[in-house]
Every structure is written in structure tokens, then in C-alpha cells.
Write a structure and sequence with these properties.
By secondary structure, this protein is mostly helical. The protein has helices at 2-16, 39-51.
């Protein structure tokens, strides 16, 4: 499950990295996290908020 979450994080970052500029991001998913259908979309929104 954690590997799937990590893939979602990488995908969201790949889609949003151009707007982030020079920033270091550390994301550590918890052990018991569930993968939701909209996880990538929610992560993209979070990454977009960092660029503002």
C-alpha cells in the first residue's frame, strides 16, 4: 500500500514540479494510509498551494 502511495506522490509532483521552483519537499506517508481515487488530485492541489 505504501508503494502505491509513493507512486501517487511522485506522479503528482511530476505534474506540478514546473510551478514549484527551487524547493525541497519531504513526504513520508504513514504506515496505515489508504489509497483514495482522488489522491493524486489532492496532492496536486497541495503542491500547487506551495507555489503560491
Amino acid at each position: 500500500m505504501r508503494n502505491r502511495v509513493k507512486r501517487c506522490i511522485r506522479e503528482a509532483f511530476r505534474l506540478e514540479h514546473t510551478g514549484l521552483g527551487a524547493i525541497d519537499i519531504l513526504v513520508r506517508p504513514p504506515q496505515n494510509i489508504r489509497v483514495e481515487r482522488n489522491l493524486v488530485a489532492r496532492l496536486r492541489t497541495a503542491f500547487a498551494g506551495l507555489s503560491a
